[in-house]
Specification:
- The chain is an alpha+beta fold.
- The strands form seven sheets. Strands 1, 2, 3, 4, 5, 6 and 19 form a seven-stranded mixed beta sheet that branches.
- The protein is globular.
């Protein structure tokens, strides 16, 4: 018998965006029901195993729920977050899931329902009324689609797109002019079924037996450009575990991706899992029995517990919204992308910065560059997502909060990353709560109302204007954000906000050594660690330290505090003692 529920806000999909949306709306005091298919909250960051998130790594972009997650991880993971070289932050996926569950448990108005997938969208001609699941029919004032593949868009016949756009559609420099072999082979980016490899040390790992169809030639040369040690350390986690999310002859899988939109989705998922399992077999064959699949990493009942609960989907159906984010909206004019404007008002509600990144196994796909060196390392240039990208053109009572925002296929390569999706979910959840409070539809909610509430959120204030030199702990952070919102013409394009001279106390270890500048934003540090003489790159997330590094004389003896990462051969500087 189907249980009938009524709530103010319904969030379907307990992934990165959906979880964030539900938590934010419930923190506002609204009645929220969050429905997911899996026993973990967090999606890409947890149940999909991508516990080495990309993007929003600089201190200035560590705001909102993303910033709160990082602070909580640092408090609760004793080994720290500095393990891999693909990301500045790696963590145990189970810990991430526990943090999200703890946040949800603290909220008396949030109901979390597990193991339910949507079957139908309840709607009138122009309004979404709720969703039917196998065991529930839930009606709500506002419904949010946080599914991994934008399933409510299809079930509700809400205008959306899937796949490529052509160069003439949005004047995107990286978009193909017409179909070609890549676009025909891969209608969207390839997903990856992530798994955790474990170093068993002196013990022998359980032997992996390939299944029928195993073809080791598919994985030949996987770490040829890097070597086996750097390959493993790409996604190194605590406790001798390694996240395997490898694009080069690895576990990306993209055969007949259109099956994801049909009843053949289950067949595709089975094949993707088998492909990833065979990559694990290949790794053990080449690395030896010291290496094997991690035990008890994910709560599976029907698959090996080293494998994520579902694939890491990089792309989904995408809403046809009030505004579509395209590649020119991401590319820098100076050091930042242009701010989105409507009627001379800024409409941004979340910041991203990742360099555009697309996955088409077997093909190289060049994209317009959007990176620069900052703080001693390469980083993506910042851009923002406008509120209108979350809002349908006409459908009422509905918002999106995942990779399914209104975005072109090309721009999705930057907007799909976990930190941005997390803060987009926060914005969507807050927008839904405000709509309930104001008794309006999302189309009628002014962006400036949402922006002010994001900036002044009591637990996780979120920036909407990107400044490299304005981290959220800066005493003038809120004033500077408001200043630009009130006067868009004052937004600096290159000479960014002046850095305050305050320094936060650091508890990081101290190091003494010699500083060398090898070129612009190319810093080295020679120091002793135990009985080893080391040379590491110096990098930083902090704008104060970035300015100090630029001013240092090469060859100078230096004392600093920071976090050494052997996998990346860098030392992340938190403070320089002068």
């Amino acid at each position: 018998m189907i249980e009938q529920l009524t709530t103010e806000i319904l969030v379907v999909g307990a992934g990165t965006g959906g979880t964030s949306a539900a938590i934010q709306a419930a923190r506002r005091g609204r009645r929220v029901v969050l429905v997911g298919e899996f026993p973990w909250l967090g999606g890409m960051l947890t149940s999909a195993g991508v516990a080495a998130p990309d993007g929003n790594e600089l201190a200035a972009w560590q705001t909102g729920l993303w910033g709160q997650l990082l602070r909580t991880l640092k408090q609760r993971q004793p080994e720290g977050l500095d393990h891999a070289w693909v990301s500045l932050f790696t963590f145990d996926p189970a810990l991430g899931a526990q943090i999200f569950a703890d946040w949800a448990r603290e909220l008396p108005t949030l109901t979390w329902i597990k193991n339910q997938a949507p079957l139908a969208v309840l709607k009138t001609e122009d309004r979404v009324l709720g969703v039917r699941f196998p065991d529930y029919e839930i009606r709500a004032q506002i419904t949010l689609d946080g599914t991994e593949l934008g399933d409510l868009l299809a079930l509700g016949e809400i205008p959306h797109r899937w796949g490529w756009d052509w160069g003439a559609d949005y004047d995107e420099p990286s978009a193909p002019k017409e179909p070609n072999l890549i676009t025909e082979t891969y209608p969207v980016q390839s997903p990856t079924w992530v798994f955790l490899l474990e170093d068993y040390g002196a013990e022998l790992a359980p032997k992996l037996d390939p299944r029928p169809g195993y073809n080791p030639a598919l994985f030949a040369g996987a770490w040829e450009k890097y070597g086996p040690e750097k390959f493993r350390n790409y996604g190194r986690l605590p406790q001798n575990r390694y996240m395997i999310n490898w694009p080069l002859a690895g576990n990306d899988y993209g055969k007949d991706l259109n099956r994801l939109l049909t009843p053949e989705r289950a067949t595709f998922l089975r094949e993707a899992y088998d492909h990833s399992y065979h990559f694990a077999c290949f790794l053990q064959e080449n690395f030896g029995r010291r290496w094997g699949l991690a035990s008890s990493a994910f709560p599976h009942s029907d698959r090996h517990p080293a494998f994520a609960l579902h694939p890491y989907f990089r792309e989904s159906r995408r809403l046809l919204g009030q505004v579509t984010v395209t590649e020119p909206d991401l590319l820098p004019q100076g050091e930042t992308a242009p701010l989105p404007l409507q009627d001379q008002k800024i409409t941004s509600i979340a910041i991203g910065n990742y360099a555009n990144d697309h996955h088409y196994p077997g093909f190289e796909f060049p994209l317009a560059p959007k990176s620069r060196r900052w703080g001693g390392r390469w980083t993506g240039t910042p851009f923002t997502v406008p509120y209108g990208a979350l809002v349908p053109k006409e459908t009422l009572g509905f918002l999106v909060c995942e990779k399914n925002i209104s975005v072109s296929h090309i721009a999705n390569g930057s907007t799909r990353l976990q930190p941005l999706v997390m803060n987009l979910g926060q914005a969507a959840g807050l927008a839904a709560a405000l709509c309930v409070e104001r008794r309006c539809d999302p189309q009628a909610l002014p962006a400036e109302v949402l922006q002010e509430q994001l900036l002044t959120d009591p637990q996780a204030p979120a920036a909407v204007i990107p400044f490299y030199d304005l981290p959220p702990d800066h005493p003038d952070w809120l004033n500077q954000q408001r200043r630009v919102l009130n006067a868009p013409e004052t937004y600096p394009s290159s000479a960014l906000c002046e850095v305050n001279s305050h320094f936060l106390p650091s508890s990081a270890p101290s190091y003494s050594g010699t500083f060398f500048c090898k070129g612009e934003q190319d810093y080295r540090f020679s120091f002793q660690l135990g009985n080893r003489n080391l040379s590491a790159c110096l990098i930083t997330e902090r704008p104060e330290v970035d300015l100090q590094l630029k001013a240092l004389r090469s060859g100078r003896r230096l004392a600093l505090q920071g976090r050494y990462n052997g996998a990346g051969a860098w030392l992340a500087v938190e403070a320089i003692k002068t």
